[in-house]
């Protein structure tokens, strides 16, 4: 059942939906009825009644005989999701072939895509605008925006934002080589930069590229 874009929900039902969504985003699974009851300081029976009502309205889904399977129907938009970074996802396409349609209406939320990772060592994220063409073979062009995760210990091959001892910040591929660090451009017109480990500070690792066509 496809719910209306603006289903009639009580404040408590909206709160429950928001908590279920947050749990699935941060933990990968939904809370139990008891956890919701504890969080909202109500009885488990009250939560069960709200959940059943939300399922009847089509804004909440549950897989039969599966624990922690509650999820907000992706076709339903919570009030705080009415933002321009949430775009309809309509399918996948390969060059030269027709689009593969998505049966259920889905969304791609740029805030979720570029939100900080939840893994160990993951840091905050920030955006830089690219100047120059030294990373063109990595499909990073001048004027692009790179999404960077703060991380001081990159792996070989990561594209990093590095601050070297002359105060210059640069965007390059990172490689450890015996007693030195190689910052490798992705353009044959440029030479690699070699520095001692003590002369470089990695500001973060590139995790995404955004390009806008005027």
What's the rounded overall pLDDT mean? 81
Radius of gyration, CA atoms, in whole angstroms: 23 Å
The CATH class of the largest domain, by name, is Mainly Beta
Q: How would a textbook summarize the main sheet? A: 7 strands, antiparallel
Number of strands: 11
Flag low-confidence runs. none
Query: What is the number of helices?
Result: 4
Structural class: alpha+beta
CATH superfamily of the largest domain: Umud Fragment, subunit A
Strand content: 25-35%
The CATH topology assignment of the largest domain is Umud Fragment, subunit A
Which structural traits does this protein have?
Umud Fragment, subunit A; elongated; Arc Repressor Mutant, subunit A; two-stranded antiparallel sheet; single chain; about 210 residues; alpha+beta; 4 helices; 11 strands
How does the SSE layout of this entry go?
Blueprint: H1 11-26, H2 33-40, H3 44-56, E1 60-61, E2 71-72, E3 86-92, E4 100-109, H4 110-113, E5 125-129, E6 145-149, E7 159-164, E8 169-177, E9 180-184, E10 193-195, E11 200-210
Antiparallel strand pairs: 1-2, 3-4, 5-6, 6-11, 7-8, 7-11, 8-9, 9-10
Helix pairs in contact: 2-3
């Amino acid at each position: 059942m496809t719910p209306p874009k603006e289903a009639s929900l009580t404040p408590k039902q909206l709160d429950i939906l928001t908590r279920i969504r947050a749990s699935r985003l941060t933990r990968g699974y939904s809370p139990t009825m008891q956890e919701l009851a504890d969080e909202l300081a109500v009885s488990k029976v009250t939560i069960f009644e709200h959940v059943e009502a939300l399922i009847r309205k089509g804004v909440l889904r549950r897989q039969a005989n599966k624990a922690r399977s509650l999820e907000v129907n992706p076709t339903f938009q919570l009030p705080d999701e009415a933002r321009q970074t949430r775009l309809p996802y309509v399918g996948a396409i390969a060059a030269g072939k027709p689009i593969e349609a998505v049966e259920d209406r889905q969304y791609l939320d740029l805030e979720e895509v570029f939100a900080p990772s939840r893994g160990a060592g993951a840091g905050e994220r920030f955006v830089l605008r690219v100047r120059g063409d030294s990373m063109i073979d990595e499909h990073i062009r001048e004027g692009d925006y790179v999404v960077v995760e703060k991380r001081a210990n990159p792996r070989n091959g990561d594209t990093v934002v590095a601050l070297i001892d002359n105060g210059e910040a640069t965007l390059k591929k990172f490689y450890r080589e015996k007693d030195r660090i190689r910052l490798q451009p992705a353009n044959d017109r440029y030479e690699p930069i070699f520095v001692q480990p003590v002369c470089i500070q990695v500001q973060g690792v590139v995790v995404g590229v955004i390009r806008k066509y005027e």
